[in-house]
Amino acid sequence: MSPDADTPNTGWRARVTDTASGLFRHAPDPLADTFSHPGDPGLFGPGSMTWQLMGDVAAFVGGIRALLVQAAHPEVAAGVGDHSVYREDPLGRLSRTAAYVTATTYGAIPEVDVALAIVRRAHGPVSGTSHRGVTYDAGDPEMGAWVHNALVDSFLTARRTFGPSPVSDADADAYVAEQARLGERLGVTPLPTTAADLATWVTGHPAVAASPAAADAVAFLAAPRLPLATRLAYRRLYAAAVATVPPRLQVAIGVRQRPGAVPLGRATTGVLRAAMGNSPAWAAALERCGQQRPPGMRFRNPLGTSR
User: Fold this and answer.
1) Buried/exposed code over 61-75 (b: 16+ C-beta within 10 A; e: otherwise)
2) pLDDT of 4 over the 60 cut
């Protein structure tokens, strides 16, 4: 365990951490009971690439990018636009999405199953017709694959672009293969198992096109109603996310890369990393499995807590 693993943040680090983590406190802690499942490694476990890659603040950029990429599928965008309450409750939607990612990444198997059940319940009534007359159903395995694969590709791309260290091709492939196990449990298909195949599948997907629902979603993502203290950092993270979206998808959703967005994104994630350290969910999952916290990693949560 690193010497300062259980030392609370103070000063500017505490202010940044409280502001950033406060955005995700609008849903119950998905790992609140994780210590009731001692020894349970969940879907991935301590030695997985998933635990390592998802434990960094680059995941913030990955989450924004995933929403942008998902909007490039007109039927997925229509489902969100017609059935989601993201406009009225943006922080609630953000918190629920973050809770799903946290539970499926670091949760014990019962916590993973709860998260998947919540998603299936929420997707049950989501059906309709997009602006181009194509019907959609959130329970469709191919639509589900677009959402899932966009998340996986986005978190990986963000980590490789804005993370603290390089990610080798072998490690990237291991991460994608691990995430395919989650996709299988979710019941979606197809599920590419290498990073290159995943990127090719996302970039070349035949359904990608512009749509009114995508335009609405992107307009909201570009300027969501956030507390004043977080707006500047969010704008930089948003621009960083846009910069990593493949050109074909940028055209479909009507966004354009800004000059300097990538280095500015790296600077912003660097500040967040210095303030927040690594994911407290990672630390909690390690403790649940009886594993020491990796040397050199900084976690802000004391032992016995998931936040």
Assistant:
1) bbbbbbbbbbbbbbb
2) no
